[in-house]
Amino acid sequence: MLKILKYQQYDVVNGPGIRCSIWLAGCNNRCKGCWSPQTWNPLAGVNFIDVADKIQRCVDNPKIDGISILGGDPLYWIMKDDLNFDSDYIADSISNVRILLKMCKASNKPVWLWTGYLYEDILKNEPEVLNYIDVLIDGKFIEERKDLNLYWRGSSNQRIIDVKKSINNNTVILYDLQKGR
User: Which residues are within 8 A (CB) of 14 and not within 5 positions of it... i.e. 6 or more apart?
Assistant: First the structure.
């Protein structure tokens, strides 16, 4: 069962404008220097199904400019990387992640997602998930490349990718930071 650690109605830190931000539990990246190791446990938080209606209201709020999906790693279940759970539990969690992504995309607001997985790996293994994401911040946090002057990411190896342009051009196209400030 997908677990939600937190959702925030009005967030101005995780992406441009006023955002509805949603933090999902679970991460296998275990990045050295991670700012939130408490998000690694996929069993922490509340069941998505128990807060889905509240998240729906948050996402649909007309005062919200966009949606940010963070974690942990929101693609923890989707990428199926070293999961030690019953297959039905995994399938249910994957289904709930897809429901959440569809819910966010249906709002017609830009959906941003942070993941330690690379765009190229997502495109190869789970390309349909990219249909629900407008901007992808990819790559593991690397403590040695930490830079507090970067917008919306923690280390210089992480990319802010315009997903639609990348798919249309069949190559990674970085998001125009000037339009997002």
Answer: 21, 68, 70, 112, 114, 152
- The predicted model scores a pTM of 0.95
pLDDT in tens, the chain (181 residues): 899 999 999 999 999 999 999 999 999 988 898 888 899 999 999 999 999 999 999 999 999 999 999 999 999 999 987 788 999 999 999 999 999 999 999 999 999 999 999 999 999 999 999 999 999 999 999 999 999 999 999 999 999 999 999 999 999 999 988 765 4
- 16 Cα distance to chain centroid: 15
Q: What secondary structure does DSSP assign to 46-85, as a single string?
A: EEHHHHHHHHHHHHH-TT--EEEEEES-TTTTTTT-S--S
